[in-house]
Design a protein that fits this description.
about 425 residues
């Protein structure tokens, strides 16, 4: 039985929002829970859109967070295919695109992010793609199938995680792939040149062409379809389809219009404290849109990956219920490309570390890489080595100085390098 005297509203029908709704019920909240999503599909997970679902190995039903019947069973009120057009904080009221008005006691913003757009001629052509929603993946999967059958060319703008995962899927379909990237290596802003080179080699072995140090400048076509692309250094590449994979921007327009504090800097996002509260004590934010003001890795920090949505949604729900919450999880994400699986923990962009130490066999792509500053582990990447994430994250959390030579020795167990276990 739902107690209608308290209403918690969640804006955002992705993983963070749906897991927050689940957590509210698991924590015993008996009031109204309203979940608003601007897609007509029930909440789903996004990693499969560039991994198994895009590659054709996962069924469509596998991407959804819960079966549709779960929401009714948990007394979650769904407003799908609806946008929130206004947030009136003094009145604690939302207005939807269809004119519906909803009052709230607590509000969670889990509005996510949206793909950044190419600002060049030709982006309106029909075969220019973005990848963020399941409809995008459906369309792109169809095109990759056709490109593979016709020996067609896909040009990808951006050698980040999405760009590389789509490149791997496209090659498995048989499409020709060219990746245009302004940095000197793939994943340069995340992994630096040391590990970026490894991913360049991996994809080149599978037939992917890279054009580094350049950006797309123009897409040309006829009858609405792409024919080629030109880069800002004057090169031209054949193309039948183009994917813009140049990052994502947090969806902050609703928060900004309502006067909530936004995070400074290019990453942006809705500023939150360690309990995921915004500048309004009755409004919270989680997932891709939330930017922590302070973290053990500095601040502000906004994390766009699956694990952050999975964990911050429930943490925000507990915070909305008045529980003591300190959200300080180590950033984590994973990727699968060809026969290489990897997990990355921590935060160590170029300029923040002074060395990279590896243990294992880098040539065989079975190793762990560690990013260090002053002999303290900032981040770790395990490649085709499993069940080590907890130990890597313990090293990151502890801040304990380690001997680089010992760290590189696979005969020394990782837990032996971390802080002594608590015997209390």
């Amino acid at each position: 039985m739902v107690d209608a005297h308290r209403t918690f509203v969640i804006v955002g029908g992705g993983l963070a929002g749906s897991k927050a709704a689940e957590a509210l019920r698991a924590e015993g909240f008996t009031g109204r829970v309203i979940l608003i999503g601007d897609e007509r599909d029930h909440p789903y997970e996004r990693p499969p859109l560039s991994k198994g679902y895009l590659a054709g190995s996962d069924e469509r039903e596998s991407v959804f967070v819960h079966e549709p019947a779960w929401y009714a069973g948990a007394d979650i009120e769904l407003h799908l295919g609806q946008t929130v057009v206004r947030l009136d904080r003094p009145a604690k009221r939302l207005e939807l695109g269809d004119g519906t008005r909803l009052n709230y006691d607590k509000l969670l913003l889990a509005t996510g992010a949206e793909p950044r757009r190419l600002d060049i001629p030709g982006t309106s052509l029909a075969s220019v793609h973005h990848l963020r929603r399941i409809a995008h993946a459906d369309r792109l999967r169809g095109r990759l199938t056709a490109l593979g059958q016709e020996n067609g060319h896909l040009v990808i703008a951006g050698a980040g995680w999405i760009g590389l995962e789509v490149a791997a899927a496209a090659r498995e379909y048989g499409a020709e792939v060219t990746v245009v990237e302004p940095e000197p290596t793939p994943l340069h802003s995340v992994l630096g040149p040391e590990m970026g080179t490894l991913f360049a080699d991996l994809h080149q072995e599978h037939g992917v062409r890279f054009h580094f140090g350049a950006r797309l400048a123009k897409i040309t076509g006829a009858d609405g379809m792409v024919q080629s692309v030109r880069t800002d250094d004057g090169d031209e590449h054949p193309a039948h389809d183009v994917l813009a994979a140049i990052g994502a921007a947090p969806r902050t327009s609703l928060a900004e219009a309502a006067g909530l504090e936004l995070a400074p800097g290019p990453s942006g996002g809705v500023a939150v404290d360690s309990a995921l509260r915004t500048s309004d004590p009755d409004v919270y934010a989680a997932g891709d849109v939330a930017s922590l003001r302070e973290t053990p890795w500095g601040g502000p920090l906004r994390v766009e990956h699956w694990a952050n949505a999975l964990n911050s949604g429930p943490a925000a729900a507990r915070s909305m219920l008045g529980r003591d919450v300190v959200y300080d999880r180590v950033p984590y994400f994973f990727s699968d490309q060809y026969d290489v699986g990897m997990e990355f923990s921590g935060y160590a962009p170029p300029g923040t570390y002074d060395q990279v130490v590896c243990r294992g066999d880098v040539a065989k792509r079975e190793f762990i890489a560690f990013w260090l500053r002053d002999d303290r582990v900032l981040a770790g990447l395990n490649v085709n080595v499993w069940d080590v994430t907890a130990a890597v994250q313990d090293l990151i959390r502890s801040g304990t100085p380690v001997d680089p030579q010992t760290l590189a020795d696979p005969d020394v167990p990782l837990p032996d390098l971390g802080p002594a276990p608590d015997k209390g």
